[in-house]
Amino acid sequence: MVLMLDAIILYLFFLLWRNIAHRILSSDSIKFVLFGFNSQIKELLDGLYRNKSNVFQCVMIALEPADKQKLDITQSYMKHIDIVDFSNINREIFERHNVDYVITAREHMQKTWADFFFREVFPMGIKIEQFQYFFEKVMQKVPVQSIDTVWFLENLESTRQRFYDVLKRVTDILMVFILIIPSAVISFFVILALIIENRTKIFYIQNRVKKNGVIFKMYKFASMVPDAEKHGPQWSTKGDSRVTKVGKVIRDLHFDEIPQLINILKGDMSFIGPRPERPEFVDKLGQEIPFYYQRFLVKPGLSGWAQLNYPYGETVEDALHKLQYDLYYIKHRSVFLDLEIFLRSFRLLFFQPNK
Fold this sequence. Notes:
Blueprint: H1 2-26, E1 30-35, H2 39-50, E2 56-63, E3 82-85, H3 91-97, E4 101-104, H4 111-121, E5 127-130, H5 131-139, H6 149-155, H7 162-196, E6 203-209, E7 215-221, H8 245-252, H9 260-266, E8 270-272, H10 279-288, E9 301-303, H11 305-309, H12 316-332, H13 335-351
Parallel strand pairs: 1-2, 1-4, 2-3, 4-5, 8-9
Antiparallel strand pairs: 6-7
Helix pairs in contact: 2-5
C-alpha cells in the first residue's frame, strides 16, 4: 500500500513538473530542419500541428527535386516552412532559421552530408538526430515504415525484464483479488440486464492471440446480437449496429470486459499491454503490415498505450497506427508507463465513459 501511494504521489508530481517544464519550453519553440520527405514525415508534421501545445516547430525541409511533388502545399502549416533544394544547403540558412535540430533519415546520411554536418553544423551547436528516434520521442509511437530489423535487434533487450515481469504478475494477481467484490456486484446487474433483454447467451468466448502467438480463449459479456458474425469475422466499429441496447451501455462503461479478470488470473493477459487480436485478423494484418508479429513479444493487456491514443480500429491503416503505439509500449514499458496507462484508463472509464 505504501509503495502504491508513493507511486501515485510521484506520478502526480511528475505531471506537475511536465506542466511547468512545458510552460517554460513553449515560450521559445524548438526549431528543426527535415532532410527528405515521405508519408511518415507527413504524419509527423500533421501530428505536430494538430497538437497546439507542442514545442517543436519545423522551419525548413531540404529536398531533392524529385521529392517536391510529394509535398501537400495545401496544408496550412506549409506556408511557415521554407522548402529548399539539397544543393542549396549552407551554413547561412541554418543561422537564419536559428535551427536547434537537424532530423534526417539514414539514407540521407551520405558521406558528403556527413562531412557537411561535422564541418558546419556541429560547431553551431545544432543537434543531429535520426528521423525514427525523433518521431518516436515526439509522437510517442514507433514509425514502422521507417525502421528495419536492426531497430528490433537494438531494442529487443527491453522485452527481457525479469524483475519487472515478476512484479507485474504479482500486481496483476493482487489487483484481481482487490476487484473481486466490486466486479461481482457489477457482474450481477449486467447478467440481470442481459437476461431481461431476453439474452440466452450471457458470456461470449472468443479466440485471441497472446504472447508468442499462442491462441487462448478470451471471455467477455455478450454485447452483440446472436448472429453478429453470420457473414464471418468483422472488426468492431464505433456505433456498431450489431450491438444491442444493453450491450451499448456495458460497452460504454467497459463492463463487458469484466470477465477478462479470469484471463488475467490465468496468466493469459495482464491489466496493461497491447490488446489481444483475433487470429483471423492477425493472419491478414501480418501479411500487410511490416513487423506486425512483433507486437506479440509481450503479454497482451486489458488496456494499452494504443487504446488510449488510437481508440478505434476498423481498417488495415488503423491497425498500422495502433501497431506503432504498441511497439512504443514494448520498447518503453516500465512501472511508471504502466501506472500512467492505468490512471489514464481509470479517468477514461469514470469521467469519459462514452469514449
